[in-house]
Write a structure and sequence with these properties.
Transferase, Pyrimidine Nucleoside Phosphorylase, Chain A, domain 3, 2 domains, 12% strand, 15 helices, two-stranded parallel sheet, alpha/beta, 342 residues
Length: 342
């Protein structure tokens, strides 16, 4: 079966959902060699993964994942990007998740260490002094205590350990960038997902249609960011009730000034953490502050807390001006420090 799948891929044919599920399962179980795995991932990446292939991979990894019961917390929110945009921006979605939690919104933040960027969400958490949850007990504790759980993907997805080395050897985005936001073990009802380009964003919208999530907003900046862009137009796909609505959105529509991409870039996790701390205190450069405001407002819209992104902007601005998100972060980091001392 594996050899047949590889032959199909080599002929530039696409896989059915069942074939993709089977291949991913075998890859996770070590029944596929590194050479075979690298070849399939490379070819799929350059020709573009199909909706059925993405769905098959997601279902296989979900089947092999460690289950986490999140029913006690009600409807959860996640903010996560596919990565692979190569822009080296600071961890915008992590900053957004802390802001949401400070507003009392339950967030299950799913992430990993950097593969194609300067700083993954797990990296910047480390620099901020926050420990990611390594099991569902810790995740539930974080949610109960701080309204946010930081879920380090490898802890919850042992199936991905086999592919971690493969991903590290491939210097470009793969199907695992696309499916990362769809693997949250706490199954959030609402998601803000950043995609590296419009093609990936549209595919993810169709995948979510098949998988079923209450409401998701998939965004991709026309400048190539896997975020709502502050430098120009953002293409958005809203998935709800098995329908997809697509539209463009500009910073001006949110009442924000356009920014400069250079003001968003960092060289490492420490720089990212410093910029996040500054923004949460209502400081930081205008471009960085505004892109966090825009994405946090989009998250409020995605989770049905506001009827428009523009309405969300005013709430986020007030949150930053009051420094409540910064105090929320400080409370989390102090608890971590005390835990290490004790």
């Amino acid at each position: 079966m594996i050899s047949n799948i590889i032959q199909k891929i080599m002929k530039h044919e696409t896989l059915t959902e069942g074939e993709a599920f089977y291949f991913m399962e075998k890859l996770a179980n070590g029944d596929v060699t590194d050479a075979q795995g690298s070849s399939v991932l490379t070819i799929m990446s350059f020709r573009g993964e199909t909706i059925d292939e993405i769905v098959g991979f997601v279902k296989a990894i979900r089947k092999l994942s460690r289950a986490t019961d999140s029913t006690q917390h009600g409807e959860l929110m996640d903010t996560c990007g596919t990565g692979g945009d190569g822009a080296s921006t600071f961890n915008i979605s992590t900053a957004v998740s802390i802001i949401l939690a400070s507003l009392g919104i339950k967030v299950a933040k799913h992430g990993n260490k950097a593969v194609t960027s300067k700083s993954g969400s797990s990296d910047v958490l480390e620099a901020l002094g926050i420990q990611a949850a390594s099991n569902h007990f810790e995740a539930n504790y974080q949610l109960n205590k701080h309204d946010i759980a930081f879920l380090h993907a490898p802890y919850f997805h042992p199936a991905l350990k086999k592919v971690a080395s493969l991903r590290g050897e491939l210097p470009f985005r793969t199907i695992f960038n696309s499916i990362g936001p769809l693997l949250n073990p706490m199954a959030p009802a609402y998601q803000l997902i950043g995609a590296s380009n419009e093609e990936v964003a549209h595919k993810l919208a169709k995948v979510i249609q098949k998988l079923g999530i209450n409401r998701a907003l998939i965004v991709t900046g026309k400048d190539g960011l896997d975020e709502c862009s502050i430098t120009g137009e953002t293409r958005m796909f809203l998935v709800e009730n098995n329908t997809i609505k697509s539209f463009n959105f500009t910073p001006e529509e949110a009442g924000l000034n356009r920014g400069d991409l250079q003001d968003l870039t960092v060289s490492n996790k420490q720089e990212s953490a410093e910029l996040i701390r500054s923004i949460l205190q209502g400081k930081g450069n205008e471009s960085a502050r505004n892109i966090v405001i825009l994405n946090a407002a989009a998250a409020l819209f995605a989770s049905k807390r506001v009827s428009s992104i523009r309405d969300g902007v005013e709430i986020i601005k007030q949150c930053l001006q009051s420094k409540s998100a910064y105090y929320h972060l400080e409370e989390m980091t102090k608890e971590e420090a005390n835990a290490h001392v004790n």
